[in-house]
Specification:
G proteins are composed of 3 units; alpha, beta and gamma. The alpha chain contains the guanine nucleotide binding site. By secondary structure, the chain is of the alpha/beta class. The protein has 24 helices and 10 strands. The protein is elongated and about 100 Å long. Bound molecules: guanosine-5'-triphosphate and magnesium ion.
Length: about 525
C-alpha cells in the first residue's frame, strides 16, 4: 500500500478511493504508520521523515487513532532540543495542519496537540521563536509588551518580576559587576567636574586631599571651560598613571575606554570587552578613590552646584545609592546583590523577557530594547501592554533632541502606541515610575515651569494626578488604561501589591480576549 500522498499532492488518485473502503483504509494506514514509527525510532528525524509524518496527520483517510499516535510520537521526539528545532522548522509546524489538530472536536487529540506544543516550548530558545512567530500556537501563554522611553525603568520592572519568581543566582549577579563599576565611575567623573566648578579653595580643608584624588583620577578634558585650579590640572594629567592616551579624544582607564564627546567636552566610559578586564577595575577603584568619592559626595557645596545646574551635571537616579555603598562596591571580592541590580543602569540593546507562572497560564513579559520598530509588529493584537513613564522626566530633555522635553516625548510615544491600529483591542497598564525622584524634585523644580497649565504647586498627589491626566488625554482610542504610581527600585516586597494588581488585570484581559469571560 502506498504511503498517504504528500500534503502538496493530496488530491492524487489515491484520495478518490471509494468512501465505502474508508474504515478499512483507516486501519491499514494505522498499521503502516505504526511500522513507520518503529522503523524510524532511534534514527535522527530528517526533513523527509517529518514530511511523511505530516502526510499521516493531514490525510483525510487517516483515522484519529493514527493521528494521535503520530503526534504522540513526535511529542516524544521533541524532548531532544535538536529534534525540536527540526520540527519547528519543518513543513509540519508551518502548515495549517497543526492548527486543525489543536481545534479538533476530539478532546484527546486537542490535548495531545497542546502537549506537543508544550514540549517544543520547554526549550527556552525555541519558546521565544514560537511565541513571537506563532503566538496562536501558545494558547496557555499570555504575551505582554513592556514599552517606554529609554531609562524609564522597563528593565528594572522586568528584574523585579524576575525577583518575585526565580531571582538571580550568583553567576547572574556577577555579570552586573562591570556595569556597576561603569555607573559609579561615570558619576565620579561628574563629581570631579562639580569640584572643578566649585574650586579647590572653596572646599573645607580636610576635603581638599580627597578632592585632589578625584581630580587626578578624572582630569579635566582639554579645553574644559570649568573654572579650575590650573596647577592641579597639570599635575593631575601627568600623574594619572592608569590613563594611557590612545588617540585624540579617547583614553583607556583600566578596563574602560574613555571617549570624549566633542560637543559637551564630557568623557563617557565604555566597557572594554576583553575577558581579563575585571581585575584591572579593582586597580582603578582603589580604596583611596572610594574614600574620596564617599567624602566629596557629602560636601554641601558640591551638592549645591550639582542641584543648581542639573543640565550641566547629569547624575543617574541611583547615584546616591551607589555612592553610599561605594566601599562595598570597591571591595575586591564584590559581587552585586539584588538591590544593586535594581539600581544598575544597563542600557538594553536586545530583546529580553521573563516569565511569570499564573496557574495553568504563563505570562511572558517582553522588553524589546532599542529594537522597538523591528519587533513591535509581532505583538499586534496582544491583550496587554505595560507602559513605563518616569514622572521625574518633567524637567529633562530628550536624549535625541535637546529642544524636546522628555515628558512630552514620553507622552508622544504613549500617543503613538495607544492610538496605533495594531493595539486597538489592547489594554494598557501605565506605570508612572520614579515617584521617589519626582517627590524630591517637585519642591525644588516647579512642575509649572515645564507645564504652565498645571496649577497645583508642589503637592505630590496633585502633580502625579496632573501627569496621569495628560497621559489619559492622549488616549483618543479609548483603550482601557490601568495606572499605578511606582518606584521600581523599591524593595520587591512593596511592589508585590502592584504586581498582584497587574497580574489580575492581565489575567482578566486574557480571559476576556479568549472569550471565556
Ligand atoms: N530612583 C529610582 N530609580 C529608578 C526607578 N526605576 C528605575 N530606576 C533607575 O533608572 C535607571 C534606568 O532604568 P532601566 O530599568 O535601565 O530603564 P530602561 O527603561 O530599561 O532603559 P533602556 O533599557 O535604556 O530602554 C536605572 O539605574 C534604574 O535603577 C525608580 O522608580 N526610582
Ligand atoms: Mg532596559
Amino acid at each position: 500500500m502506498p504511503r498517504p500522498p504528500s500534503v502538496r499532492s493530496i488530491h492524487s488518485w489515491w484520495s478518490d478511493l471509494h468512501a465505502a473502503t474508508k474504515p478499512l483504509i483507516g486501519v491499514l494506514y494505522y498499521l503502516q504508520a505504526r511500522s513507520f514509527i518503529g522503523e524510524n525510532t532511534g534514527r535522527p528525524l530528517s526533513t523527509a521523515t517529518i514530511d511523511t509524518f505530516l502526510s499521516y496527520l493531514a490525510y483525510k483517510y487517516s483515522s484519529l487513532a493514527t493521528k494521535r499516535m503520530v503526534l504522540r510520537h513526535l511529542s516524544e521526539r521533541a524532548v531532544s532540543e535538536e529534534e525540536a528545532w527540526g520540527l519547528v522548522e519543518s513543513n509540519l509546524f508551518q502548515s495549517d495542519v497543526l492548527d486543525e489538530l489543536m481545534d479538533s472536536p476530539d478532546e484527546n487529540m486537542r490535548q495531545i496537540a497542546q502537549w506537543f506544543i508544550t514540549r517544543l516550548t520547554s526549550h527556552e530558545p525555541l519558546r521565544l521563536q514560537i511565541l513571537i512567530m506563532y503566538p496562536k500556537r501558545c494558547r496557555n501563554i499570555v504575551k505582554i509588551l513592556l514599552l517606554g522611553l529609554r531609562g524609564s525603568g522597563k528593565s528594572t520592572i522586568l528584574n523585579q518580576m524576575k525577583l518575585l519568581t526565580k531571582g538571580f543566582d550568583e553567576h547572574e549577579r556577577a555579570k552586573y559587576r562591570m556595569s556597576i563599576y561603569k555607573n559609579v565611575l561615570d558619576c565620579a567623573g561628574m563629581l570631579a567636574r562639580a569640584v572643578r566648578r566649585v574650586g579647590l579653595g572653596a572646599l573645607p580643608e580636610d576635603m581638599q586631599v580627597h578632592a585632589m584624588v578625584l581630580l587626578v583620577a578624572f582630569p579635566a578634558p582639554d579645553g574644559d571651560d570649568e573654572k579650575s585650579n590650573s596647577e592641579t590640572e597639570t599635575e593631575s594629567v601627568e600623574s594619572a598613571s592608569e590613563i594611557s592616551v590612545l588617540h585624540s579624544g579617547e583614553a583607556a582607564i583600566g578596563p574602560f575606554t574613555r571617549r570624549r564627546n566633542h560637543e559637551s567636552g564630557e568623557y563617557h566610559l565604555g566597557i572594554s570587552t576583553a575577558a581579563d578586564v575585571l581585575p584591572q577595575t579593582h586597580a582603578m577603584l582603589t580604596p583611596t578613590l572610594a574614600d574620596a568619592i564617599w567624602h566629596i559626595s557629602r560636601v554641601p557645596a558640591v551638592g549645591r552646584v550639582v542641584d543648581e545646574h542639573p543640565a550641566d551635571f547629569y547624575l543617574m537616579d541611583s547615584v546616591e545609592y551607589f555612592f553610599s555603598s561605594i566601599h562595598r562596591i570597591a571591595h575586591p571580592a564584590y559581587v552585586p546583590n539584588e538591590q544593586d541590580i535594581l539600581h544598575a543602569r544597563v542600557e538594553s540593546t536586545t530583546m529580553t523577557h521573563t516569565s511569570i507562572p499564573l496557574g495553568d497560564l504563563s505570562i511572558y513579559v517582553f522588553d524589546v530594547g532599542v529594537e522597538r520598530e523591528k519587533w513591535i509588529h509581532h505583538f499586534e493584537g496582544i491583550t496587554s501592554i505595560i507602559f513605563c513613564a518616569a514622572l521625574s522626566d518633567y524637567d529633562q530633555v530628550s536624549a535625541e533632541d535637546s529642544r524636546v522635553n522628555r515628558m512630552r516625548e514620553s507622552l508622544g510615544l504613549f500617543d503613538s502606541i495607544v492610538n496605533s491600529p495594531w493595539f486597538w483591542r489592547t489594554s494598557v497598564i501605565l506605570l508612572l515610575n520614579k515617584i521617589d525622584v519626582f517627590r524630591k524634585k517637585l519642591s525644588r523644580i516647579p512642575l509649572e515651569r515645564y507645564f504652565p497649565e498645571y496649577t497645583g504647586g508642589s503637592d505630590l498627589n496633585r502633580a502625579a494626578k496632573f501627569i496621569l491626566w495628560r497621559f489619559l488625554q492622549e488616549n483618543r482610542a479609548r483603550l482601557s488604561v490601568y495606572p499605578h504610581l511606582t518606584q521600581a527600585t523599591n524593595d520587591t516586597k512593596s511592589l508585590r501589591l502592584i504586581f498582584a494588581a497587574v497580574k489580575e488585570t492581565i489575567l482578566q484581559n486574557a480571559l476576556k480576549d479568549s472569550r471565556i469571560l
